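Have a think about this chain, tokens included, and walk me through the fold.
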Amino acid sequence: MLRSGVTTPDIAERLGFSDERSFRRAFKSWCGSSPSVYRSGQEQFLHALK
């Protein structure tokens, strides 16, 4: 998800969700944040490691 360049709707579809909204809700339940917040936070973390 972080480096693939794949969009959230594409990920939702690939994982079998009927729509992006359902995926976002499930992702937030699993990870504690939305996919976009997760992505930006992880990118900042990876950048700090360099």
Summary: The chain has a mean pLDDT of 84. The CA atoms of residues 39 and 45 lie 10 Å apart. The chain has one domain: 8-49. The radius of gyration is 12 Å.
